[in-house]
Amino acid sequence: MEKYPGKKKMAVFISGRGSNLRSLVKYSKQKKSLFSILLVISNNPDAKGLKYASKSKIKNYGIKYKKNSNFENRSLKLLKKYNIDILCLAGFMRILSGNFIKKFYKPILNIHPSLLPKYKGLNTHERAIKNSDKFAGASVHKVTQKLDSGKIILQKKVKILKLDNQKSLEKKVLKIEHEIYPKAVDKFLSNL
Ligand code: GRF
C-alpha cells in the first residue's frame, strides 16, 4: 500500500546546506500538502542536507561523478526506481542538461534568489545592491533548457534597506525562499 495515498511523489536535488529542503520536508508532512518527499539526491556527497534527509528517514544519495552525464544517468535511474512525479531543485548548483530534462519527462521546479527575470545566474544579491534596487526577492519557476527562464509560479519581494549588505540581504531572501517554495509547489500541483 502507498505510504501517502494521493500525494505526488517528490525528489529533491541539493548541493549543500539544504535549508530549502528542510522547509519542503516540514511542509510536506502537513495533511494539506499535495506532495511527499521520497528521495533526495546530491551532486556533493558531503552536502549537509543529506544528513538531514537521513535523520528524516528519506532515502538519499550523494553521487560521486567525473562527468555530468554520469551524475544525470545515475539520477535518472533513481527517479525511475522511486516512481517520482515531480523534481525540485533546492540549492542545486549544477545546470541540468536538455537531455536530462527530456528524459525525465516530468515537471522540474527551481527556487532562485532574485525577482526573475532580473538577475539570472549567480551573485544575485551583489548585483541587486550594486544597482541600488529598491527590492530583492525570490522566485519559484519551472526548469527548462534555458537557465532560470521557465514559467514563474510564485514570487515574493522584500525591501532592500540602505543598511543592507550582501549577507543581510541573503538572510532576508532565504527566509522568503523557505516560505514560498512549498506553497509554490502546491500551487503548481493543484493546477495540473
Ligand atoms: C538558496 O539561496 C538558493 O536559492 C540558492 O542557493 C541557496 C541554497 O540554500 N540557489 P539551501 O542549500 O537551500 O540552504
Describe the overall structure.
- With 192 residues, the protein is an alpha/beta fold.
- The protein has six helices and seven strands; from the N terminus they run E-H-E-H-E-H-E-H-E-H-E-E-H.
- A seven-stranded mixed beta sheet has the order 3-2-1-4-5-6-7, with helices on both faces.
- Strand 2, helix 2 and strand 3 (59-62) form a beta-alpha-beta unit.
- It is globular, with a radius of gyration of 16 Å.
- 39% of the residues are buried.
- Bound molecules: 5-O-phosphono-beta-D-ribofuranosylamine.
- Residues 14, 16-20, 90-91, 111-113, 174, 177 line the site of 5-O-phosphono-beta-D-ribofuranosylamine.
Summarize the structure.
By secondary structure, the protein is α/β, with parallel strands linked by helices. It contains six helices and seven strands.
Looking at this protein, list some descriptive labels.
binds 5-O-phosphono-beta-D-ribofuranosylamine, alpha/beta, 192 residues, single chain
- The average pLDDT is 97
What level of helicity do the residues show? Answer: 25-40%
Total count of helical runs of at least 4 residues: 6
What does the radius of gyration come to?
16 Å
- Which residues sit in consecutive blocks of at least 5 with pLDDT less than 50? none
Q: Please state roughly what percent of the residues sit in beta strands, choosing from under 5%, 5-15%, 15-25%, 25-35%, 35-45% or over 45%.
A: 15-25%
Shape: globular
* Largest sheet: spatial strand order: 3-2-1-4-5-6-7
**Beta strand count:** 7
Task: List the SSEs and their pairings.
Blueprint: E1 8-14, H1 19-28, E2 35-42, H2 48-55, E3 59-62, H3 68-81, E4 86-89, H4 98-104, E5 108-112, H5 124-130, E6 135-142, E7 152-159, H6 166-190
Parallel strand pairs: 1-2, 1-4, 2-3, 4-5
Antiparallel strand pairs: 5-6, 6-7
Bound molecules: 5-O-phosphono-beta-D-ribofuranosylamine.
